[in-house]
User: Fold this.
Amino acid sequence: MTAGALVSGDVEHMRVSRVTISDVTFAADLSGALFWEEQRLLVVSDLHLEKGSSFATRGVLLPPYDTIATLDRLAAVISRHNPRIVIALGDSFHDRTAHERLSAEDRDAVAALQTGRDWIWISGNHDPMLPRDLGGTIADEVAIGPITFRHEPTGAPGEVAGHLHPKARVSARGRSMERRCFVSDGMRAVMPAFGAYAGGLSIRDAAFARIFPKNGFVAHLLGDRRVHAIAASRCY
Amino acid sequence: MRPLALLAAGGEGHPSTNPLLRLTCHAVPPRILQTSAEPAALLPDRFQAWFAARGWSPRAHQLALLEKAREDASALLIAPTGAGKTLAGFLPTLVELSTDAADRKAGGRQSLVCTGRSVQRSGGLHTLYISPLKALAVDIARNLERPIAEMALPIKVETRTGDTPVSRRQRQRRYPPDVLLTTPEQLALLLSSDDAPFLFSSLKRIVLDELHALVTSKRGDLLSLGLARLWRLAPQMRAIGLSATVAEPDQLARFLVPQPDGREAAADIVIAGGAAPPVVEMLDTRERLPWAGHSARHALPEIYELIKANKTTLVFVNTRSQAEMLFQNLWSMNDDGLAIALHHGSLDVAQRRKVEDAMSAGRLRGVVCTSSLDLGVDWGDVDLVVNIGAPKGSSRLMQRIGRANHRLEEASRAVLVPANRFEVLECRVAIDAIAENAQDTPPLRLGALDVLSQHVLGCACGEPFFSDELYGEVRTAAPYANLSRQDFDDVVDFVASGGYALKTYERFARIKQDKEGRWRVANPKVRQSYRLNVGTIVEDDMLKVRLVRGRSTGSGSTGAIARGGRVLGEIEEYFIEGLTAGDTFVFGGEVVRYEALAEDQVYVSRANDKDPKVPSYMGGKFPLSTYLAERVRRLLDDGRAWGGLPEQVRDWLSLQKDVSRVPGVRELLVETFPRGNKQYLICYPFEGRLAHQTLGMLLTRRLERMRARPLGFVANEYAVAIWGLGDASFMIRDGRLDLNELFAPDMLGDDLEAWLAESALMKRTFRNCALISGLIERRFTDEDKSRRQVLFSTDLVYDVLRKHQADHVLLRAARADAATGLLDLRRLSDMLMRIQGRITHRELDHVSPLAVPVMLEIGRESVYGEAADELLAEAADELVKEAMG
Assistant:
């Protein structure tokens, strides 16, 4: 663990844990969102809207409620923090035509979330061409102070990224549990996927070793009622 | 087909068991003979001559089945192993085909057979044989060859399994043999092809082997739906079911004939008699009986002596890991160099075949095995069955015992080895049940909706169908006789476009209706996917275990591990997920240390520990049967019956009577006492591990709400132990904790719903339904394989569906499974009703004798409970310690 990378806090009844990246302190929210208090900036990554219908086009008829489930959770975290800016950190849409399959209600829900705040869609590998008719600003990456927000992590200092869908498994007393998590080493962070159907990639995967120093990072696991900071060496 | 041999009645001729062992011995009265003894006129000359030439005479039940065939009736044959059941099942076929042969030469017997799209005349398929094991089908085919060759019958017999080459499968569809031996899954595949009407229209008979085993699972549901289809394609077809003894033969007999609308119909039942009663003994160990645990390690020398004193011994255990452990221990004491082998489902197939062959050849003295040998190939020369641990059910035990000695007139011999004191009670009542020939097989299943979904898709892959017609057809299958139209329509809607309230998937439908209203598959890819995913067996995800050189420090990192290494075998993923690096367990007959997991490979190193840290006893597959549980409670209640128990067990129960209470038959005993700095609450429902796990989970939630501050619980087959910080004794005295309220049946309402929302067991149940129903594919076509990495977790689908459409047909299917499956809700609910107003509380100063076994499970068994935050917090605390240290 890098010194000073992390201090557990009891803000919001333990709903969050603190994550420091290049001397900026964020709140890692239980929902999987990251909140920058001073800037009143909320980041969510990998919404993968319309993943269900994307599978349906190929004959796997997953329940078509993932978009509404994801937007409901997004609405809850937005109402809790009332951010000035929301960044959707890429892969907001599961495929290039996903936005065309959004229902009228879903579009209204997105518009309602955008009311009264700045909204930035960052492009990802699943949604390189973002729709122009869904409000907000479109960008490849955003830099604010020492922090750069981009979809795919490069390992650069001050970077907040998504893309990898980190999850971690912890076991004790013959039981084990796997959860989505934030990953951070004090210099950079990778966010968990926010989408209802988004799967996960173990933080032991080589993809994380390319970004973080070996075992010198912390996973912030999303529990049922709080976020738990656990050394990566303790997870698998 | 050796069971026909008339052999000297056994008993005295057996090698004696070790005189050092004190055995309590109980013979069983003969079973009822209920077969009509028709004259051999039923048997053509050629057959009579063949029997005579062998020095055999046909058995009464074999003739009875010929008589049923002559009456054009379907029949259920209930017979013990060794009764010549298989030949009985095939005799009507052989006789019919031999008498047909003359006609056939004259072109008399004609049926239609499809070659591609054109129709040609030829013999056609006469008999279909379905077995739960493909190895059994292959073995039966070999055994049939002998009478066919010796009587020079013009009958062609072939097998069709997953291993049958594509070319032969194609040929079988064009030029079917007279007799085809196959499995329920292959039948479903054949039925889903365009050729099905041509292939099966000539069918005269179907023989269903090991029917008692098939009908207890979803495979039985699938088979019943296949039968319903066959009855429509071949109304002249008659069925013969072959089964071990079951509790409700009348219900099983319904499976074999089409159920008329609103009534019940059943096949005729033939019960074979003449089996010698088995001789079952309980090992009265000279060692101290353990309080808990399942290893039976105390009895190892005695088990070894039994193997040594007999020619061939089958040693049954309940789990793979127990088999591993026992084999390892026996091997280490094998100073006589006895040929002892290991057989369980996770071993490599080739390895298993080697053991089976050595067994047939009589080269083995002992085989340590799991339920992998419960069914199947007849080996003959087994002269003793040893059953380690609790028998779980009397029928199950009787079938296992039947594996010893497949000669009808000789008594099967078995020794039960209880691994702890509670298991002594269970063994005792099981022996009594066998003496009464009391059966406790589960009742016939209600057909599952996920299996029906798979079948409906399969039907659409063949000839297009009308909903009304298919609904009528499905209800002729006994498990689906009471299927509601609403459920059926929901299933069709699910198969078509997902069955969602939000109608957004119509354009992606997998099956579509044509102008006349017939359903057919929307595109060939759907058909291809059905064929790849047919079947109801969902296997645990398995990981390859590789042996590598160990490291001194276990950090959990894969970095320091040399990749590669020798493959030891495969292990269930869920087991590995419960381990931390450095934990030791037994695998492949040795103690290994878990090093790391990388992709689908588990890396382990050789450990020097004598005892593994993680016991890896995940419980048997089956919980204690309701019937045996009831008998255990009766035994406890009846002090006079304790005389039949070993002295150690008697003393234990007497002591319990003195310091606390021995629970009555219908009563629930609850004990509370302090120990260390914690407070314990123990209850003794005797309802099996699965129901107890669910109970423990629900009680813990309730106690938390009642502010009794519970910390955790363990469950075994007999009891649940909950511990916490709150003083339950004081709370009960004080009136703040009402036990009647704590155990009130309404816990199966909101508490259960809340728990199901997050229960890992429920998610696993849902996943199985999602796979079987075809919502999610298990196997992929080559072009799809590259997509595997974009798969999603069914847990996420469960969460979303539960929230947005709680009455979806798949959730209904999962709840129905939960009632009898991993959560055993029905049994729990029966228990809660039974004990209402019958709870007795004992406040104690310290642990009671009866509580010792379950208390010992604490820390040894994994602690159930799904409080994620507590577990994660524990891991996080270690981080703090690390940081401070």
In short: The mean pLDDT of chain B is 82.
